[in-house]
Amino acid sequence: MRSRVFELAALLLTYPDDELLAAGDELREAAARVEPPAVREQVTAFLDWLTATPAIEAQRHYVQTFDLRRRSGLYLTYYLHGDTRKRGMALLVLKQRYRAHGLRLTGGELPDLLPVVLEFAATAGPGDGEAPLRQHRQGLELLRAALTEDGTPYRHLLDAVCSVLPGLTDEDRAAIAALASDGPPVETVGLDSIGAGPDVTPYPTCSPAEASR
Hints:
Helix content is 63%, strand content 0%. By secondary structure, the protein is mostly helical.
């Protein structure tokens, strides 16, 4: 089921804190139920690295990969819109979609953070739930390419997610190539009022124990 892939990837793409790192056995049990086998192998390859790596190294690697490199950031709308007004509208659309399903964000987190988008897809299911992943497929593929180029084990998770989504069309490939060549548009604007507000509650991500069910 795609939902299991999305749920596991959402969890494993979060910062590897002590709780996550202590849940190796539960995560492996959850990964063992992933289908098809090729996708299961991708998730397992990442878990092999995560469980064999000292905590401080795994945490440093996460920060270096996602927080210090804009080309491999986890915020999907940036790839298509940069820091422009169009990005602000894309964030608003995402937030409204979450609210329509009774989900709210808090803590200043933007709604295009990949673990949030994946958790929404896992919970809301095909149709509305997976629509943001399809709409931001170009960003997913650019992130996947950056992680592959860097050789980080996190590439396995993006491979798993993209492999269960619909195949790319020629038009998709051309748009991705253009974005990779030109980069996102530039037009710095404030996003605070769009991405988060005092009335927004964080999208609930699953715990390791829930992922193993």
